[in-house]
Design goal:
With about 240 residues, this protein is an alpha/beta fold. The strands form two sheets. The protein has a six-stranded mixed sheet with strand order 1-5-4-7-3-8. A two-stranded antiparallel ribbon has the order 2-6. The protein binds zinc ion. The site of zinc ion (ZN) has 4 residues, from loops.
């Protein structure tokens, strides 16, 4: 696939990958700054030591900041499926949005179309399976909330990028109610099986990260019955994706 509209502005913030390189994860972010120009300047400033491979503006313009063969600095302290050096393994894509700090808003259609096009291209060129397409908040739930609850993960999954479960039609009975000790243990086993790295003290923020992505109507970090059921559905979908 060709991506003729990719513009280039190279960031100095990158390093070598391992030898041989292994690229099997795609990580999506939002920029969380007031403007695209400000974000791109930040990601290209040698003093910040942060970067990403791509930035996608709200009008769909795609910028390449770091060559894919190099390691960009976008994940920070993070963990997925037991691994923690995620910059080493991943392609990082920053999607322009002011974020929760500066006025979080919906991602425009032109931008989502560009996100889908770029991600399809990446997952076709690298062995990036659906269960290794992650959001920054999935891998750093104690620090990050991007790309956030307005991001249309279901749409991307429909295009073969990431996992989306088949959702049961009716809402679980007792929605909003808490779960018992056995269900709670099962729910945390589901979280871990999906790939979330839950540590002591990070339970609520990890639940919230899961909710932002898979139950975006409410991301309060509370393990209610609806969240527990959604966890089981998502885990099933991840189990199927991993067995393919
Ligand atoms: Zn991020």
């Amino acid at each position: 696939m060709t991506l003729p509209e990719v513009r280039e502005r190279l960031s100095p913030n990158h390093a070598a990958r391992g030898e041989p390189p292994r690229i099997d994860m795609l990580m999506l972010h939002y920029t969380g700054m007031k403007t695209a120009a400000e974000a791109i300047d930040w990601l290209c400033d040698p003093s910040t030591r942060v970067s990403a491979h791509y930035v996608i503006e709200e009008d769909g313009t795609i910028w390449r900041l770091v060559p894919e063969a190099r390691r960009a600095f976008h994940a920070g302290r993070s963990c997925w499926a037991g691994e923690s050096d995620l910059n080493e393994l991943s392609i990082g894509v920053e999607i322009v949005n002011p974020g929760h700090e500066w006025g979080y808003r919906s991602f425009p259609a032109e931008q989502m179309a560009a996100v889908e096009r770029l991600c399809r291209d990446l997952v076709s060129r690298y062995p990036i399976p659906p269960h290794r397409v992650v959001g920054h908040s999935d891998v750093a739930p104690d620090r990050k909330s991007d790309p956030g609850e307005r991001f249309d993960w279901a749409r991307l999954a429909g295009a073969g990028i990431g996992v989306w479960p088949e959702l049961a039609k009716e809402v679980a009975r007792g929605r909003g109610r808490g779960v018992g000790i056995v269900e709670r243990a099962a729910a945390f086993a589901d979280l871990a099986a999906i790939g979330y790295c839950v540590t002591a003290g990070s339970e609520a923020v990890t639940i919230a990260a899961f909710q932002r992505r898979f139950r975006p109507e409410r991301w309060d970090g509370r393990l209610d019955r609806e969240t527990a059921r959604r966890l089981a559905e998502v885990r099933d979908a991840y189990d199927r994706a991993r067995s393919r």
